[in-house]
Specification:
With 226 residues, this protein is α+β, with helices and mostly antiparallel strands. It is built from 4 helices and 13 strands. It folds into 2 domains: 37 residues; 176 residues, endopeptidase fold (from Nostoc punctiforme). β9 and β10 form a beta hairpin.
Length: 226
Amino acid sequence: MNIDTALSRNPPCITMMHFRLMTVLLIACLMLWGAQVSQAGEEPLPAACYAPCVMPYGEVLGKSPGGVVAYSNCSGKCVSQDANIVDHVNTGMEWQCVEFARRWLYRTHGLVFESVDNAYNIWDSITDLVDVKTGTRQNLKNLSNGSAESPQRGDLLIWSADYLGTGHVAIVVRVDQQEGYVEVAEQNFLNQAWPGSYARRIPLQQREGGVWLDDDYLLGWKRLLE
């Protein structure tokens, strides 16, 4: 029997085999295309984000009171170009200190502050917060380190540009006047697992007629006016 005779007698088997092969190839192509599309909006991370670090990039560091999660940025040299979006709100570049502060304010108050180039710009450039739903604004006031008014829960601590050229921002989540410290929630400082519902404690002292937080380059705290 020649090949032509065999094909003429068994066309359904050959056709089905070809159909199955084409189906498998089509599915594989669609899966590859889908993976490429899903990653199309993401910029590749710089090498600094993969450098040796205490907690790998994107790992959960802890959760503040109210359930706002902080993620590792690996190191201060890691700068992602991908924005974090929460409920269609751009909270900032993953996983910078500014992103956490803005996301904390949004999650707890429904408020955000406008874009800044660096964290230290918050001290002078940001004078109010915007209500995401209504667009109304609520004023902030600056209280310099050494102010007569002690930090309160929800205050934003701001560091100057002398800290790494960018400054830093953290959220006060607890104040213990008796023991003399405040607990803060933050991203991209130590990038290590939190010991509790806070990232670290900063010593608090009363001296020279004011209240001081003993942390280098700290400008002070910003407070939302009711």
